[in-house]
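Replying to the earlier thread about multi-chain prediction with a worked example.

Input:
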Amino acid sequence: MPELATRLTRVLQLRHPLLSAPMAFAAGGALAAAVSRAGGLGLIGGGYGDLPWLQQQFALAEGERIGVGFISWSLAKSPSLLAAALEHRPAAVMLSFGDPRPFAAAIHAAGAALVCQCQDMQHVRDAVEAGADVVVAQGAEAGGHGALRGTFSFVPEVADYLAAHAPETVLVAAGGVADGRGLAAALMLGADGVLVGTRLWASREALVKEGHHQAIVASDGDGTLRTRLPDIARELAWPPGFTARIRRNAFTERWHGREADLAQAVAVEGPRYRQAFEAGDPENTAVWFGEAAGLVHAIEPAAAIVERMVAQALDRLGLQRPAAA
Amino acid sequence: MPELATRLTRVLQLRHPLLSAPMAFAAGGALAAAVSRAGGLGLIGGGYGDLPWLQQQFALAEGERIGVGFISWSLAKSPSLLAAALEHRPAAVMLSFGDPRPFAAAIHAAGAALVCQCQDMQHVRDAVEAGADVVVAQGAEAGGHGALRGTFSFVPEVADYLAAHAPETVLVAAGGVADGRGLAAALMLGADGVLVGTRLWASREALVKEGHHQAIVASDGDGTLRTRLPDIARELAWPPGFTARIRRNAFTERWHGREADLAQAVAVEGPRYRQAFEAGDPENTAVWFGEAAGLVHAIEPAAAIVERMVAQALDRLGLQRPAAA
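Result:
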């Protein structure tokens, strides 16, 4: 397997410039370990603060060199979670959706790389102030939580900002990256690597119910939208400015544009939403994938996905030609 | 000046795989001619049906080989505009925002290439059915009218669709393409070239008032939003699903989320909007640029913009290395 070396592979000591997204509930230890074994860096999704689950997932990663990601505003409510995670000596800790600065010192003191996911230029300025080793520029096409900037012009704008203000900070592109074309394009835009969510959500190792996996295979990229509905149904206090990209289905059809009504009905609708989620019902709960659904045609092992992405990117970039000559 | 050859340059007989966006009001004959002289294909913006203006802009292009673009739902109301444009023997006619099929035969009969701009997969299927020679996949980061899909994952999804269903149809990426990094990335994603709006809106030849040009230079890419406000203020009957990306300013601050109020106040607010637009007021009217504003730092001649884009893309793609050896 040829390697694709960038600043990201050097900083994080990887064979390939690829991180898996720490998707809450879906990105457990098996997925993280599989991505790391394939040459990238797999991240467990720290989610909303379930310590026993997190410990279990670290155990499932069986000592593989991995990282972990947290939702910053949620971590701020249970900061002991970070200390527990750092005891597993993760190679990197990714922080998204909130101020990274309160956690930066502890992460660096534990010898982990600080990865800050950003959705707009203000987040990037905050990440640089926090001393981020890696900035992830996440575009709005991403599945799950995010904001408004599109990947295509956000990535080069962040590249310019980092070149001027923090030239040692490494840049990763996220949002819509699902194959080797996306990896190659991200490098052209000025990124040093990619973070892959949706495409690895659609892997065998992801903790995703069968009905939800079938839904992404059946969907094209038009079949999603950005909404606050799942956060209302789960009564999660997401800060303003963030929405979740999920599948368009009966749940979004029924409630999109009627957010206040859902909030009022949450005593009934909340349990119904959670029950449907647990059952893998693709219609009456949120199904967490992004616009890259249009590039996903099968549920495959994570290693096969990573290896194909790298091989296709190398081919696009023409980097195999010298070796072939 | 080195050339960058793709399927687009062959189909449209260009030196460089780059079209300028036919931006209503801003893309006149001078801009179109300058882009064509620089090796791309410049398109006059046919706008909302002002025939004398269109004739004047063709005259200003002084016989340069150019194209023209129309807003399909508006063209359907004054179809004689197309016949008048075809008398100028444009190299290409681009249709956006509506059904292209009623106009396809006349365009092909006049020897022009049919270029269909698409915002989702249904538009792509319609374009193929219309016999499009070129499909433009336009992402939501674009300035002006558009829809919801992000450039980064929409382009490869359209590339896959065309490869399977219309392999002769050429693909152009639009939305957030403002420098050579974007051109190179678009080629990696599977496009054969790019369509450039915002970056050429910020050119000397664009018909844009000084105050609006100053606003884009001052803005980063976070400074825009998608909204129906300008269409309400101008009483233009845009079909559902399309919004305009414009600068965040006093106008959007005042009315965003209060669309019905603006519609009710349009007898007063409409003339106020138009007056501010004519005066180049950057605050009290729509200012038409996209997220690529974060990549625009100066108003320059169109030729310089095009030449730098191509040179930077060639450099990124490593295509100059053989020549330099």
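The first helix of chain A runs from residue 7 to 12.

Feel free to reuse this layout for your own posts.
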